[in-house]
Design goal:
Elements (H helix, E strand, L loop, with lengths): L1 E5 L5 E3 L22 E7 L6 E5 L3 E8 H9 L6 E2 L4 H4 L1 E7 L6 H16 L2 E16 L10 E3 L10 E3 L2 E3 L1 E7 L2 E9 L1 H8 L7 E3 L7 E8 L9 E2 L3 E2 L10 H9 L1 E17 L7
Parallel strand pairs: 6-18, 8-14
Antiparallel strand pairs: 1-2, 1-4, 2-12, 3-7, 4-5, 5-7, 8-18, 9-15, 10-11, 12-13, 13-15, 16-17
Helix pairs in contact: 1-3
Length: about 280
């Protein structure tokens, strides 16, 4: 089961190895993959918590903004989702869906793309844009890595994401608390790390490290998505109150992993929202 649960306190997710790929894809048509039944309701509870789970053949999303749902359907950080009306970020929804078969995570995501097309009238396209980006690079002139980024010797062939004795193996765990976040991984690729770290940043993140292979890693940082005071981080957690002892993501990357973020203009794959509408309540 793949699950993401965000709370104002701790939130944890075992990351799927799937990555953003492809260009020019439209939302999947119902003939390809669709839920057998789906219920969508506006959530006006005022809660700050949200929940998103995709066990085999089902999808449960509680109190989620639509942009967050698009992010999960297309497996792309929100900084790469461009456009859409204001309500895509401010209004919350409960989505409960089931399928006849125990579909895997990738099939459930295809079903979710169909649901977004049919019920929200979502039309998107993929393109490459020149825009402000971050590039992740090696921070040290001698190319040595930090203490929390080490080549992995774990064989993950045929294994899923697991946690053994508190250590993450064969995947990346994402944790988020009030104003802070962490990524811990075992036998993980830098590509997957970059994709997940990008969820915490206010602009697309590109990999410029040149690192290949698998790594054990750990990063603890201030979960700032923007330099704007009070800007939101994934899951709706405000950054207004940040623990004093947690370093910024820029400092944490240098000290813990021997990496750095550089802000520059660059090319980035983005998804552009062409059309979307509020769903008719069930």
């Amino acid at each position: 089961m793949f699950a993401i649960t965000f709370r104002v306190g701790l939130s944890v997710a075992l990351a799927s190895p799937s990555v953003f790929s492809g260009r020019g894809q439209a939302p999947a048509p119902a003939a390809v993959a669709a839920f057998e039944a789906a219920s969508i309701k506006r959530n006006i509870s005022g809660e700050t918590r949200l929940r998103f789970e995709t066990p085999p053949g089902r999808l449960t999303a509680v109190n989620v903004p639509l942009r967050f749902v698009i992010r999960q359907a297309y497996r792309v950080p929100e900084a790469r989702i461009i456009g859409g009306p204001a309500w895509v970020d401010t209004e919350r929804f409960d989505i409960l869906s089931t399928a006849l078969t125990n579909a895997n995570v990738d099939t459930v995501r295809a079903m979710l793309r169909t649901l977004l097309s049919e019920r929200f009238g979502l039309v998107v396209h993929s393109e490459i844009r020149e825009m402000p980006v971050y590039v992740l690079r090696l921070a040290r002139t001698n190319a040595t890595l930090g203490p929390h980024l080490r080549p992995s010797t774990t064989d993950c062939s045929g294994r899923g994401s697991t946690v053994v004795a508190g250590q993450v193996q064969c995947g990346i765990m994402v944790s988020q608390g009030p104003g802070s976040g962490s990524l811990r991984g075992g036998s993980a690729t830098i590509d997957n790390f970059v994709r997940l770290l990008g969820d915490f940043l206010d602009r697309p993140l590109n990999d410029g490290t040149g690192l290949t292979g698998l790594f054990d890693l750990e990063l603890q940082f201030t979960a700032e998505r923007s330099s704007t005071p009070g800007a939101a981080v994934p899951g709706g957690v405000a950054t207004a109150s940040i623990p004093d002892d947690v370093p910024s993501v820029f400092t944490a990357l240098r000290e813990q992993m021997g990496l750095k973020l550089e802000a520059e203009k660059g090319r980035a794959d983005v998804w552009v929202i062409d059309a979307v509408s509020r769903p008719t309540p069930d």
